[in-house]
UniProtKB/TrEMBL annotation:
Its cofactor is heme. It comes from Daucus carota subsp. sativus. The keyword Amino-acid biosynthesis does not apply. The keyword Magnesium does not apply. SUPFAM superfamilies: Cytochrome P450. This is Uncharacterized protein.
Length: 502
């Protein structure tokens, strides 16, 4: 007994010392390395000078490592550029990294965070996401309501391209795919299609611009008055009022008692009909905010992926030949490809996956914000402390081009996904998660992927594609500009030629 007491008397102070020393060491951990900043503005000048944020962050990761600290005005920021660190942020410590920064433009347009994509983490956010998952993005709804619309819009797009091909006209492929994507989304969301030049398209462009524009108040709160001086707040308020009126008109149309009972239920109908079954008080502002999510996410992502797929295929004629041979061999003289056929086109599906690896629709996932302090690192010798309220950028651009994850990462090689068919879009493989991972993962993955696969299969089956006269393959550029999605700086214009099945 005496020996036990002596042992405890020795062990207790030692354990206390080690515990305190561990806490001290944890508190003394540094922030990840990063480029030096300037007084007051931090690293903002580097973002201002860079042609695109994702390329700047990729360059910084090569110099400083997979975790890079930045100071954006008064806001601490972290750039995550490896699959190992992405797993730490999006899975292992997801509870800490699940919030979103309350950015001025996004908060205003989302009715102070009543939707899913841009809102800070909260119990209310969980309720709204649950409602969207159970009522709006169900497999049954996708089959009954979305599928016929998608197939109709694909065939309408093919009809327009056939007219262009018959007249030997050049086609701006992004404009073509944007019309296709927005027609699906608007018909599914509120039951109508808007022609090119309609008020809807102008309003959507302005909303997307405001979501990605710079507001001084987001990074320098004490200088928020500058946003009023420059007219940014007036522009935001004006666009919000216009958007709110647009949505209210749509809701009023759906509430009319004489509205046709045979009309297929769209998203507005579903929300209004299930208003009382929600676990929260679903208001008209919720309806408008959720519509915003669906339209912004659904339109931009689909058109972006399709445009980059055509860019990659035109730059890689061997891949183009192989995927067209598959589509035409499997489909024969069927004439049109429907959703059931896609399962029989593994190489086409690999082309879509490879497109989103090399040209991710969101080169940086929507920024997150830490809800507490965190300790992460590549190994025990390189552990770092991340402060609360740090804005976190996960670089899909860097992860998709990391030689640690991919052989010859800068080459467009769909075969890599045939060799690794287990890699999917579900966010379980942290070398590939173009729709995010964890509790903030995009809930409309299946909708978005099928929009892309069906459209690409049909345009490759129906047409051969040519560059403008005098343009060579090596002239096809890959320059990008900043935005919510990965946008080409220069339009990709191609000439479709009708393929005649022998």
């Amino acid at each position: 007994m005496d020996l036990l007491i002596i042992a405890l008397l020795i062990a207790f102070p030692l354990a206390l010392y080690l515990s305190l020393n561990h806490i001290k060491k944890k508190d003394d951990l540094p922030s990840p390395p990063g480029p030096p900043g300037l007084p007051l503005i931090g690293n903002m000048h580097q973002l201002y000078k860079a042609p695109s944020n994702h390329e700047l962050f990729w360059k910084l990761s090569k110099k400083y490592g997979s975790l890079v600290t930045l100071h954006l005005g008064s806001v601490p920021a972290l750039v995550v550029s490896s699959s190992k660190m992405a797993k730490q942020v999006l899975k292992t410590q997801d509870a800490i990294y699940s919030s979103k920064p309350a950015m001025t433009g996004q908060q205003k347009m989302s009715y102070n965070g009543l939707e899913v994509g841009f809102s800070p983490y909260s119990e209310h956010w969980r309720d709204v996401r649950k409602f969207c998952t159970l009522e709006l993005f169900t497999p049954k709804r996708a089959q009954m309501s979305v599928r016929p619309v998608r197939e109709q819009e694909v065939y309408r797009m093919i009809g327009g391209l056939t007219e262009a091909a018959s007249a030997s006209k050049m086609v701006d492929v992004h404009r073509c795919f944007s019309d296709y994507a927005s027609s699906i989304i608007t018909r599914v969301a509120f039951g109508k299609r808007y022609g090119e030049g309609a008020k809807f398209h102008r309003l959507l462009s302005e909303i997307e611009a405001l979501f990605s524009n710079f507001f001084v108040s987001d990074y320098f709160p004490m200088f928020g008055w500058i946003d009023k001086l420059t007219g940014m707040m007036a522009r935001l308020d004006r666009t919000f009022v216009e958007m709110d009126m647009f949505y209210q008109e749509l809701i009023d149309e759906h509430l009319k008692p004489d509205r046709s009972a045979s009309t297929t239920d769209d998203v507005i109908d579903v929300m209004l009909n299930n208003k009382n079954s929600a676990s929260f008080a679903l208001t008209m502002n919720h309806v408008k905010a959720i519509l915003l999510d669906i339209i912004v996410a659904g339109t931009g992502t689909t058109a972006t992926v399709l445009t980059w797929a055509m860019t990659a295929l035109m730059r890689n004629p061997g891949v183009m030949k192989k995927v067209q041979e598959e589509v035409r061999r499997v489909m024969g003289k069927k004439g049109k490809i429907d959703e059931d056929d896609i399962q029989n086109l593994p190489y086409l599906r690999a082309v879509v996956k490879e497109t989103m690896r090399l040209y991710p629709p969101g080169p940086l996932l929507l920024p997150r914000k830490t809800m507490g302090s965190s300790v992460i690192g590549e190994d025990e010798d390189h552990m770092y402390k991340i402060k609360p309220k740090t804005v976190v950028f996960v670089s899909m651009w860097a992860i998709g081009r990391d030689p640690e994850n991919w052989k010859e990462p800068l080459e467009f090689m769909p075969e890599r996904f045939l060799e690794r068919p287990e890699i999917d879009y579900k966010g379980q493989h942290f070398e590939y998660f173009p729709f995010g991972a964890g509790r903030r993962q995009c809930p409309g993955i299946n909708l978005g992927v099928m929009n892309v696969e069906l459209a690409l299969a049909n345009v490759l089956y129906t047409f051969d594609w040519e560059l403008p006269d005098g343009m060579r393959i090596e002239d096809i550029d890959e320059e990008t500009v900043n935005g919510l999605t990965l946008q080409r700086k220069n339009a990709l214009c191609l000439r479709p030629k009708i393929y005649v099945c022998p």
